[in-house]
Amino acid sequence: MLALEAYVRMNMVVTFLVLAIMLGLYLSASSGHGPNAILYKSHPATASAFWLMFVTFASFFISYGTQFLHDEAMKSLPQGKIFIDPCYHVAEAVVGNLASVCTLSAAIAYARGSAFNLGTAIRWIAVSLLAIFLWATVFENVDDSAFSTALKMSPDVIVSAIAGVALGWVFFVRWGGLNGALVLIVSVAYSVLQLPAYLSIGGIGALIPQSNLNLAFPCLAGGKLLLAFGILSLLCGSTAGALAMHEPKYWPTGAVPPPSWMQTFYGWIGSFVSSVAVAISTEPLKAIMLKVFG
């Protein structure tokens, strides 16, 4: 369990860094010195995708933070388990699925271009979260068998997998070539790694050696860096005329070179090295983080 706590904290740090970078990009764009592709007045579709992904990463941060607070509460108030656990499980399901439905909405925005309607997307997100809330609440009142737990987690697993693949696909469709393919590969890999993480957090990991499942968390921490770079670099370059962002596009037709190919190339290398460093350093840093944060 100590390893899991350290892994969760590492993901919180990485997610916070991504959110800070996204805010920095927006402030830079607002001042006229950054990419205007993420400004809603100029480019509604790409800006919608940008902010929906911001909510996705914010949901990641809240989800990891909620888990950390829950674990701390269980240490100091073990007698409150009967009251705290149901609230935590429902909140975790809602926040986790908020990340997934926002990722899926970002993919739809990038695919539909100017045909995307943000207001309609927000309404569908709200309906989805209400359905997840009801689903999680119902399953909190049934037995804790592996079967019922698997059913309770099924929306989380299914929606996150669909959203991750869809996100990578729409960037591949728009950009094609190596950069689009890399985003697709990273998105699919990240989606696959989420399954063991869900199993570990959801309690099914009790039936499997925890240490094996927990290996997904340092990989997810590193994967967030790759995913963030790939998406943000292409989003910020989406003013390229060859992308035809005003038109819906669902199937690749060719490769579009990024505005600054060499910067993108070195960015991918830097992100890969950073992600590997984060994943490898998580285990050695575990003891240090546990001492610093308690």
Short descriptors:
single chain; 294 residues; 79% helix; globular
Tell me what the structure shows.
The structure is a single chain. The protein has 294 residues and is an all-alpha fold. The radius of gyration is 19 Å and the shape is globular. It has one domain (2-293). The mean pLDDT is 82. It is 79% helix and 0% strand. The relative contact order is 0.13.
**In DSSP terms, counting alpha (H) and pi (I) runs of 4 or more, how many helices?**
9
SS content category: mainly alpha
Radius of gyration: 19 Å
Instruction: Give the total of beta strands.
Output: 0
- What is the total number of structural domains? 1
Low-confidence stretches: none
How does the overall form come out from the CA principal axes? globular
Largest sheet: none
Beta-strand percent range: under 5%
**What is the N-to-C order of secondary-structure elements (H for helix, E for strand)?**
HHHHHHHHH
Q: Mean pLDDT score, rounded?
A: 82
Rounded to the nearest angstrom, the distance between the terminal CA atoms is 14 Å
Helix content: over 70%
SSE layout and pairing:
Elements lengths: L1 H29 L13 H33 L4 H32 L5 H22 L6 H30 L1 H26 L7 H5 L1 H21 L24 H33 L1
Concise summary:
It is built from nine helices and no strands. The protein has helices spanning 2-30, 44-76, 81-112, 118-139, 146-175, 177-202, 210-214, 216-236, 261-293. Helix 6 packs antiparallel against helix 8 (216-236).
